[in-house]
Structure formats: structure tokens, C-alpha cells
Amino acid sequence: MENLREQWLILISTPVYVAIILLEILLTNLHLKKTYNWKEVGVNLYLMLLNSGIDLAFRIVYLAILNYFYQHAIITLSEGVMYWLALLLAEDFLYYWLHRFDHHIRLFWAIHVTHHSSEELNFTVGFRSSVFQPLYRFIYFIPLAWLGFSPVNIAFMYSATQIWGIFVHTELIKKMGWLEYFMVTPSHHRVHHASNPKYLDMNMGMFLIIWDKMFGTFQAELPEEQYGKIKYGLTTNIKDLNAVNLVFHEWKNISADLTKSDITFKDKLGYVFGPPGWSHDGSRMTSQQMRNHEAGLVEKMKVEQPENSSHLTLVPQLVGTQHPHEI
Ligand SMILES: [Zn+2]
Ligand SMILES: [Zn+2]
User: Which terminal residue of the chain, N or C, has fewer Cβ atoms less than 10 Å from its own Cβ?
Assistant: First the structure.
């Protein structure tokens, strides 16, 4: 019965996805904007298939682990409106932290980076999954099972909020009025996919933006005349789009860093568990350092060219070209 619920969700959401993608293609063509890059779309769908395959194969294992904690739950909950509301809030909160750690620990960034590697933003990028995330996502949801939420309901709620998570990958919808206050919107998620320093590692939420506002990772999308155009993708984009490289390129970078001859064990830990962009000799920059660097440049411009201080659009590009370090 419960499994049926998730199947219904897939049955209903699939034609909706197809419809919004077709609508997006139609509208972008009508507005004579750049159309879909079909090679990128192919990559997005390929990564989705890989992710779904791993999720399906591993599902029996993670549901069993969650079930163990559910059997030892500290509370017996009965399903009602409050139950589903609490599950939505708690799961979205835990996903926020999963996503935040994915961005701040290089080992997990190496998995999540595929979701950010597209230089375009359209609905199909929502399907460009972090292929191996299903192998560890459930760990974040263990507290839910231990609190008395059934594993099947946890999986169902994740799939349900993910529908919204896919919907926010678009340039078509500018702002969503009062929803901007508490929901993750396309405007918020455009910021999340941007490589401009001020936007890096911001807006981690899947369904609600309140967690970012509470924990200091919220950044509104700024008008182009104030901060320049959004540049999607990574601070250094991947040239080789072959399937293996797309999924494993950051693993290769980690392994290259670990085999450096002049580094200590502590440095090695830094290369695996430190933030992306960390280096033992300071030759790269983390996103925080890029932000600080950009802020420094802005201050310098204000002092040196006060008449131009309102035109800061050159700054992101300047930072990108001077320090082409992938984060
Ligand atoms: Zn992300
Ligand atoms: Zn995204």
C-alpha cells in the first residue's frame, strides 16, 4: 500500500516533468533565447539514469537500515496531518545539512559536483543527479526513523519534495511573490547554481528556504546592474564531458593531491575532508576566500574609482580569471 503511494507519485510526476520541459523548450524558442544544449540534456538524463539505478539497487539495504532504527523508535506516531507536516519539516531540515556538508567537505563535493557542472540552467538540470548520493543520503534520515517515522514514508516524502527541487531549475520564472519568503524558488536556486563568488555555496534548501535564512547561507538573486550576470557552473568548468570524467573528475583531482610528495598526513586529511579549494600551500582558494577576495576588490574599487563604485559587474569575472580554481 505504502509502496503504491510512491509509484503513484512517479506516475503523476513523470508527465508533469515532460510537460514543463516541453513548455520550457517552446517558451525559450519563442523568446529567441538560447535554446537547450542537447549534449548537456543527454548528460543530464544519463546522470539521472545512473543515479536511479544505484538508488534502486541500494534501496533494499538503506530501507533495511532505516527499518532497524524504526523498530527501535523512541516514539510511536500515528499518521495524520501533523505527522506529515512534521515529517516534511524535519526531513527538509536534515536535507539542508546533507546538502551543506556536500558543499563543504571535498569528499562529498566530489560526488555532488556533477549536479553543479552544467553551464546551463533548465528543468533537465534538476535531473543531473549526484550519482552516488543514494549510498549515504539515508544516514541523515536515521534520526527520523528513530523518532518513529516509517522508512517508506521517509522515502515518499523525499521523492515528493524532490519534485519541487526539480521544478526550481529554470530561468523562465523570475520571482514567486510571497513564496520567496519561505519556499525555495527558481530565483533562489539560480543563485545556488551560480559560480559568481557571492553566490557560491548559498541557498542549500530543497523545499523551504527558511533553513538558509536561519543558518546564514541565504543569498538573494541580485539585479544584473548591481552584481552582474549569473554565470552557471563551476568556477573552473569541465572540458571533457565523457561519462567517466563527469562522474569521477574530482576523485581524480583528490587522488592527484594525495600523491603529492611534499605533504604531511594532516595535509592529506585537508585534501579529503577540508573544504573544496583548500590547499596545503595556499595556491587555491575556497569559496569563502573567493568571496573575501571579491569583497576586497570591491572596496579597492570604491577607494580608487568612487565614481564607478556602483558598477561592480566586472568583479566576478575578474575574480574568475585571476584565480581559476575549481571549488
Ligand atoms: Zn548543491
Ligand atoms: Zn540544483
Answer: N
Whether residue 113 contacts residue 234, with contact meaning beta carbons closer than 8 Å, is answered with yes
CB-based contacts of 162: which residues, under 8 Å, 6+ apart? 206
- 2: number of Cβ within 10 Å: 11
Largest CA distance in the chain: 68
Give me the count of residues in the chain.
Answer: 327
What's the CA-to-centroid distance between 74 and ligand 2, angstroms? 34
Contact assessment for residue 189 and residue 38, using Cβ atoms and an 8 Å cutoff? no
* 313, 301 contact by CB (below 8 A): no
Q: Which three cell numbers stand for residue 255?
A: 587522488
DSSP 133-169: GGGTHHHHHHHHHHHT--HHHHHHHHHHHHHHHHHT-
- Asked if 226 and 312 touch (Cβ cutoff 8 Å), the reply is yes
**Main-chain dihedrals φ then ψ at residue 222, nearest 5 degrees:** -90, 150
Cα 167 to averaged position of ligand 2 atoms, centre (Å): 10
